[in-house]
Specification:
174 residues; two-stranded antiparallel sheet; six-stranded mixed beta sheet; single chain; alpha/beta
Length: 174
């Protein structure tokens, strides 16, 4: 009899969890995003101009498009041209190539391409998650290759890492 009662109580508890748990408004996904879709339906991404001293023509459009693409594919938010419930604006503030691995003869063996982006994130519904900060990431490449030859491969790799960092900072609030 005790066993039957505990089984009934267990089933009631599971039923209550399923009933009330299904009404939660925050959604967690395998992408790591936690977005309250009852409060936020749209996201806008402003064009990230390259304000760095050194400029690569493909960087601004590559970064902006990758951020939009990540938001569209990893959330249920509708990407709109401006004034989204969530918004990302900013600029590329750093783009530099520096030697990182020096040989015994004081020659560089590897160079490092570093990109820095300043991002302002605004969440209209939950302003406690707003931020304005810089994100930086890099990739190393062999000194036998000119930067102009390596950019086509390095920029997308670095941009992907930057976008992941920004996405996680803005939408992984747990």
């Amino acid at each position: 009899m005790k066993r039957m009662l505990s089984s009934i109580y267990g089933m009631l508890l599971v039923g209550l969890v399923l009933r009330f748990g299904a009404s939660c408004s925050v959604t967690y996904s395998f992408s790591g995003a936690s977005v309250d879709y009852t409060k936020s339906k749209t996201v806008s991404v402003g064009y990230f101009n390259n304000m760095a001293a050194m400029v690569a023509p493909i960087l601004s459009p590559t970064f902006t498009d990758e951020l939009k693409s990540k938001l569209a594919s990893q959330t249920r938010l509708q990407v709109v041209p401006e004034d989204g419930d969530l918004s990302f604006t900013g600029e590329i503030t750093g783009y530099s190539s520096d030697p990182v691995a020096i040989s015994g003869e004081e020659y560089a063996m590897m160079n490092r391409l570093t990109i820095t982006v300043r991002v302002k994130f605004v969440n209209k519904a939950e302003p406690q998650f707003n931020f304005e900060k810089s994100f930086s990431n890099y990739e190393d490449y062999n000194t036998n290759v000119l930067l102009s030859q390596a950019e086509g491969t390095l920029i997308p790799q670095i941009v992907e890492k930057l976008v992941d960092d920004i996405f996680n900072e803005a939408l992984s609030n747990w």
